Amino acid sequence: MDGATQRLDSEIQERGPGQIHHHKKIVIIGAGAAGLIAAAAAAKRSAEVVLLEKNSKTGAKILMSGGTRCNVTQDTDARGILTGFGHAARFLQRSVGAFPPHEVVRMFAELGVATKVESTGKVFPQSDRAIEVRDALERQAVDAGVKILRKQSVHRLLREPSNWWVETEQDRFSADRVIVTSGGRSWPACGTTGDAYGWLQQLGHTLIATRPALVPLTGGDRWTHELSGITLDDCIVTAKNHSVDQKKHQMARRASWLFTHFGFSGPAAMDISRIVTLNEDRKRLQVTLDVLPDRSAESIETTLVEAAAVSGARKISSLLSDWLPSRFATALALETCADPAIAELSRLGRRTVVSSLKALPLPITGTRGFAKAEVTAGGVSLNEVNPRTMESKIVPGLYIAGEVLDVDGWIGGYNFQAAFSTGRAAGIAAASP
User: 368, 390, 407: which is the final residue of a domain?
Assistant: First the structure.
C-alpha cells in the first residue's frame, strides 16, 4: 500500500464515517472487475456510489473467464505482475504495488472465497466457480452501500463547471466525480463493445488504436491443421513483428501450445497475439516454436548421431515420439525429412530436424478477432491518466480504470489483477475530499 493510500485510510479511521464532510457523489460506469471493486472502495470511504451496468447482470466477463472458473490473479508479487504488461508496467507500478496479488487473495478470503494455486501459478477459487467470485465482489459493494442499477446503458457523459451528468437510455444521473470502468472491445457478447471510447475522446482523451489481445491465432499449414487438438505442454514461442522499434515488437513466452483446425491457441499462442496484431503486414511477422526447450540443439544432434549407430533402422518419428506426442512427432518427421530410418538421415537432414525442433517456423495469417479475444490492447493513453489515482489529467473529477486503459497483460490472472488494482485506486481517490 502506498503512503498516500495509507494516509487516506488512517484519516478515515480516525475521523469515523460520521465525521467526514462533503461526501462525494460518485457514478461508476461498468460493473465488471474494476467497477465492482472501485465501487466498494469508494463506498467504504463514505462516498454515495451509484454503479451503472448495461447488462442484466454484473460481472459478465468474470462469469465467462477461465472456462467459468475465473483466474483471479497470479501467484507472484507486484513485480512479477508488472513483467506481464510490457509498456504499461511503469504505469501500473503504483496501483499494483498498493494492492498486489496477496492482497487480492486476502480480500477474497475475507469475502468467503477460498482460493487455490495451480501448477501454472494461476489462482482460482477452490470451488472452480466463477460465480462465487462475482457474487463476492457484488456483495462487498452492496454491503458497503453501493446502489447497483442494471440495464443502464450509458450514451452520454457531460461535464459542467460544478458537476457531471451521466445519461443513460432511461435516466440522468448527477455526480461530483465519475469513474469509467466499462471495459474494452473484447468478448463483445458480454457487452464490452468499447462504448466509453467515444465519450472519452469527446472529453479530450487520446485513444491508442485498439486491437485484440489474448486471442487465438489463425494460420498454419495443412499438416498443422491435421494436428487439431494436440497440445504441446511445454514449449517456447518467439514472435517478431519487424519494425523500427524491435524491442517493442518482439516477445518470447514459455507455456503450452494447442494446434487447432483454424491455427493455434493455448497460453503461449494467446500471449504472443499482442505482437501479431501490431502490424497488418504478415510478411513482416516471424513466429517460431521451440518444442524441446530443455534440450539444446547440440544435445539433440548428438542423440541423433548416437541413435544412428545403435539403432539405425529406427524411424525418426519413433525417436521423436520419446520426447513429443506421437502424432506431432510423426507429422513433424514427415514434413521435415520424409521420416527415413535414422541411419539414412544425412548430416544436412539431421540439422533440418534439429532446426525444426528448436525453431519451427509457423505461418500466421491473423487472429480470431475481438469476438474471441480475452482482452483489448490499446485504449485510453496512459500519459493522460495519473498512475496513482487513475484521475484524468485532461478532465478533473474523471477517473479511468481497468481494460478501457491502454493496458493488456499475459494470460494467467494478470489482467484481472490490473483491473482490481486500478479499480481500487480509482475508488479510493474519487472518494477523497
Answer: 368
pLDDT digits (tens, 9 = 90+) for 25-57: 999 999 999 999 999 999 999 999 999 999 999
pLDDT of residue 369: 94
Give helix 414-431 / helix 3-15 axis angle, nearest 10°.
50
Report DSSP letters for 195-243, one per residue. Answer: HHHHHHHHTT--EEEEEEES-PEEE--HHHHTTTT-EEEEEEEEEEE-S
Decide if pLDDT at 405 tops 50: yes
* Phi and psi based region of residue 20 (left: phi greater than 0; alpha: psi -120 to 50; beta: remaining): beta
If asked whether residues 363 and 377 sit together in one domain, one would say no
Q: Cβ contacts of residue 217 below 8 Å, gap of 6+?
A: 263, 264, 265, 269, 272, 273, 276, 364, 366, 367, 368
pLDDT in tens, 189-203: 777 789 999 999 999
Reading the block at residue 26, the C-alpha cell is 460518485
Helix (H) or strand (E) holding 35: helix 33-43
Task: Tell me the longest C-alpha to C-alpha distance in the chain.
Answer: 86
Number of domains in the chain: 2
pTM: 0.90
| Domain enclosing residue 272, as ranges | 216-368
Phi, psi of 377 (to 5 degrees): -90, 150
